[in-house]
């Protein structure tokens, strides 16, 4: 058990990086608290796996330090870090039985055999592998193999944290849910620090208490699922989380109002205080769920042209045009539509202002 | 889909039958034909049934050659497979070292077989050969034309030098095909280098090693050109392997009947041993009992 502190970590796979673009990770300073369940969410190639491998020691960071509690482990090899990691594709030792697979990390550390048997049986029971213990690992299904990989991580009682690198990618959808539940259960039972890498927002939001969203080698926001949803700190977070993603409209400022295509949109009193009229390109952002579409114009509404309506069963997605901008609106299934022209209102409490992609507070 | 019968479909498999007939069946039947007849000259032949087979099976020189052959192939496998794996493990995984070592290893495989024999004759000559002179200078009496033991050492060295690279190339290909995640997981699990070899690399190389073993067994069992050039089967009969004896019989003495019977027995031995090897190896490391 440990608190993991990434102290100004940067990493480049190029031996002599020239510019920012040569870096897979750019200056990450982050703390994972002991016993928390965290997800690392981002699109492919954003540096998630690199970051994970730096924590486990499979990759040496170009710059910065990795601290477990107060101990600097940057130069320690993986074997000495007390980290367990589960990979995207199940890694099993083909020639061994399931029992020997699970016992492998313990036996390598010369743990007393009686203790090994006790731990393996305990972990096998948790993962529902008890019946398979005597079988060879080779012939098992992909999800059983992934459970073995997972079990090898859990079997050690001394791990500081257990890291998951998209472990459910190869698992059938109906088993994914099952294993996800299992992970959650294990986290609660063993009180491990858990870092879960994924590009699937549902997975991240269900497993983790707090999610770190990564974009181009940086953590752009670290927060609870609710914070990520309601107050994205970066336009990328707004766009990446939520289906469909957040709407962003270029705007200018006029007092306490944003002006979009010549129409005034009110902002929440505290949100719209761009001290000194914040520089850079400004955008307002709003989740499709929070927009209101009505037939009649109201004081603060904006006229829009409705182009398409997709009915997705329990809700519908309306695509509307405001000047050159496309806006997605998510409405309840039974809500009536105004026809080809509508009036859109932006509730000020859900309308956010972004300057150069970053939330203005 | 409805099924229907059309016997013209057989025409589609005719080319394969023709190729197999000319490449395997007809030559083999020719040998069978020789093996049951005594041939005195063109148009002058007598059917003798299984007489040649009986004679060949009781030929003590053939027994000796077979024992020599089995010892030789056994040694070849015992030396070349572990050595090949060891070299493959020591080879670099990336960088400029890869093409360099691959080319160096492939060189012996590219040399014509009788040239290899010639190279080793010169190399091991006690009067001018680099190896022969060196060993004699060290005070050891070495002459592969006089001592059966020295002849065996020389033939083995030549064989190992010639063919270990094939095992290396196959093993190396097997090693490179192992995903990185296995090694990463092994590091996480705290596995030692030996455990990594024993539980990851060796099991993952199983397929290519079976092929390497079969190829090396068959080739070494059929070896002819190199020892023929190097020792001519001597001194005495010390390095007369099966195919050298066969050629002596067929070409030297022109005993076509016994030679043909011998060829068929030779062929069946290889077939049988390969089958046994393959069956045995299929189950090695999978733990399945049949």
Question: What is the tally of helical segments of chain B?
Answer: 13
Q: Tell me, rounded to a whole number, the average pLDDT of chain B.
A: 85
The total tally of domains of chain B equals 1
How would a crystallographer describe the biggest sheet of chain B? 2 strands, antiparallel
The residue fraction in helices of chain A comes out at: 10-25%
Distance between the termini of chain A: 36 Å
The share of residues in extended strands of chain A comes to 25-35%
Query: Radius of gyration of chain A in whole Å, from Cα?
Result: 25 Å
Question: What is the CATH superfamily of chain B?
Answer: MetI-like
Q: Provide the CATH superfamily of the largest domain in chain A.
A: P-loop containing nucleotide triphosphate hydrolases
CATH topology description of the largest domain in chain A? Rossmann fold
**Oligomer kind:** heterodimer
Helix share of residues of chain B?
over 70%
**Can you count the helices of chain A?**
8
Query: Which radius of gyration of chain B do the C-alpha atoms yield?
Result: 24 Å
- CATH topology heading of chain B: MetI-like fold
Uncertain residue segments of chain B: none
Count of discrete structural domains of chain A:
2
Task: Just name the CATH architecture of chain B.
Answer: Orthogonal Bundle
